[in-house]
């Protein structure tokens, strides 16, 4: 078994656990009596992000100098997704009476996790290649900090709906353009 195939098993496991957590909570989250559209949009955003992130792992298949710290650093990606999944979907999703209340109770965890994820993305290339790169696509990450600020400060439904719509549009756009090829990360 080649090293990348061996490593890809771990990535598959971590990404799968996050996706299963989100998918497992969907039936409760779409319940007509308790659903909250902003919360549902963030579940969809995270599912799409997990898929595109795993799809991008293929870019590391030719990395020759694998070290344990690089492996662990790449696993942080999936671990952050899993953390966000646990914020969005509790262990017993059927016990949630109001997804709106759940969302606003946990919004700080969600937005701080997204902030951590954006910082992680900036460090990712440097840790893996030793080269610092700041190109046009990094401007998107800087722009993505703005909704985080508003998400942390506001409890207004319309503000959070705009934030969720911003992230769903950018996530879908990325999925259908830049991230449509396996290993898309190497093209950045």
UniProtKB/TrEMBL annotation:
<feature type="transmembrane region" description="Helical">
    <location>
        <begin position="71"/>
        <end position="89"/>
    </location>
</feature>
<feature type="transmembrane region" description="Helical">
    <location>
        <begin position="133"/>
        <end position="152"/>
    </location>
</feature>
<feature type="transmembrane region" description="Helical">
    <location>
        <begin position="36"/>
        <end position="59"/>
    </location>
</feature>
<keyword id="KW-0472">Membrane</keyword>
<feature type="transmembrane region" description="Helical">
    <location>
        <begin position="110"/>
        <end position="127"/>
    </location>
</feature>
<keyword id="KW-1133">Transmembrane helix</keyword>
<keyword id="KW-0812">Transmembrane</keyword>
<feature type="transmembrane region" description="Helical">
    <location>
        <begin position="159"/>
        <end position="179"/>
    </location>
</feature>
<protein>
    <submittedName>
        <fullName>Uncharacterized protein</fullName>
    </submittedName>
</protein>
<feature type="transmembrane region" description="Helical">
    <location>
        <begin position="6"/>
        <end position="24"/>
    </location>
</feature>
